[in-house]
Input
Amino acid sequence: MTLYGLVKVLHILAMAVLIAGMSGRALLRARLVRGDDIRLMAELTHIEDQFDEWLVVRGSIATLVTGILLTWLGRWPLLRTGVPTWTLVGAALFLATIPLVIWVYVPRGKRFSAAFRAALAHQRVPAGLRAPLTDPAIRLSYLYEYLMVAVVTTLMVTKPF
Output
C-alpha cells in the first residue's frame, strides 16, 4: 500500500469516527431533552461530553489533518482555471464549523454547565434546564454539521468539479 492509500484509509476511518460521534451525541441529546431524573441526566450528559471530546472533536481534527495530507500527497488542486475545486469547497464547508465552536458551542455549553451544576446541587430537574437542550442556535449548528458532512462526503466520493 502506498502512503497515499494509507492516508486515504485513515481519512475514511477519521470520517467514520466523526459521524459515529455526531450520531451518538444526537441520540443522547434526544434522550436528555426528555429526562426527568437528574442522576440519569448527569450520566447521559457525561457520556455526551465523552462522545463530543473523543469522537467529534478528535474525529474532526483527524479528518482535517488527513484531508490536508491527501490533498498534498495526491496533488489535488484547490483552484482550476480560477474556479474552486471540490477540495477547496469541501475544506471551506468543513472549516466553517470552527466559528460554531467559538460562538455557539463554547458559550452555550458554559451556561448549560452552570445551570446543570445548580440542578445537581438541588437534586431535581427544573423546567428551565430543558431550554438549553432545545436551544435553536445549537439545533441549527448541529443541522449544519449533519448537512456539511453529507455534502463533503458526497464531494469526496463523486469529485464533481
Remarks:
- The chain has one domain: 3-158.
- The mean pLDDT is 94.
